[in-house]
């Protein structure tokens, strides 16, 4: 009870004085578990202390939050018209910690809502950054960036994130208790459901592109062709949204027991174990909701300036829009999820790691992408599911490789290296290829090939 007691316990029991004054100062600034004054009976002490406690918890929630200084700098840079490349770069790094805070606040509020509502909230906010960036890009007519970021988000999750989970988890858990080589395992229902849904999403993206090539070969006029592709895309989007609702109902209601391995011991966002349960009880739903709203507003502002500088970046840095959408934006949006998934994989919690990586991919494929198609329809923007041919092929092959990799319900570091290697190959292909070469109108070789196949009939 006096100065000889352990520091951590002393700081939790009181706001101190005397010998503990130094610890109280440290707690006030750097201890996310306790803030002196929160339990005070005086309102003018209690409420400011509570606001500071929530702010401190948020700021200390992730190491990447050290990049938060880029948020005000990026907003100032965009508002005052700095060099576009500087505006893009600063806002790029500013969005990374904001994505981490979004993930943290979502986890906090999900804990209070229960499994079903918590899962739905994670489904809504898990890919909030990509959704916000895509909506702003859609408003600005950057349809290629929107489409690329959708495929890029899926690829980054099923290749990069899952590959890193398999690789680092396999390295750390390489041997069993006898010293023999061992594999990590995860629930087969996760692999089977994931494989089916990802195959469906691949088909939904391949079909409009195939129809485009066939119509292009018949020399129909441009407007008629676009109407046909839009009609197919919008009808497909509605079906995918219905299937996503059924998937949520299946996972969270009727067959939640099949997915209980991921959700019973750990919340959807990735904080784990009963030892850490205390940390997850600190923030009330109202406080978490306010953090969520403020962060979403900041993400929207930074994303607006980031998207607005893309044209200048493409012209001056000679980077293709496809590379920006496919690689850069998903890395920003999924940074927090990447870290979470790898950490739990290293701790041999592969069901949770798979849930983070695959769950995000399914959300993008079955919810976010069709939602943007419908939103484009409402906004009068010709957003469709006709993706660039190379993007579509890359996505389809990636889904095929992932299906073969996860179907046995086991993973090792070699499989992880293979998935990461494929992602790097795809990223390199998009990095070295200029934007003009991805233009649909310049895909003449492919169109000639289609005509040669269908021309005789």
TrEMBL record:
Ranges of compositional bias, category Basic and acidic residues: 1-10
Pfam families, per database record: Na_Ca_ex
Keyword tags: Antiport, Calcium, Calcium transport, Ion transport, Membrane, Transmembrane, Transmembrane helix, Transport, Vacuole
InterPro entries from the UniProt entry: CaH_exchang, CAX-like, NaCa_Exmemb, NCX_ion-bd_dom_sf
GO cellular component, one term: endomembrane system
GO annotation terms (biological process): intracellular calcium ion homeostasis
Gene Ontology MF, one: calcium:proton antiporter activity
Membrane topology summary: Multi-pass membrane protein
Record region (Disordered): 1-20
Primary subcellular site in the record, as a coarse category: membrane
Record has Transmembrane as a keyword: yes
Residues annotated as transmembrane: 57-78, 85-105, 117-138, 150-174, 194-215, 227-250, 286-307, 323-346, 352-378, 390-407, 413-432
Stretches assigned to the Sodium/calcium exchanger membrane region domain: 85-252, 290-431
Family: Belongs to the Ca(2+):cation antiporter (CaCA) (TC 2.A.19) family.
Protein name: Vacuolar calcium ion transporter
Lineage: Eukaryota, Fungi, Dikarya, Ascomycota, Pezizomycotina
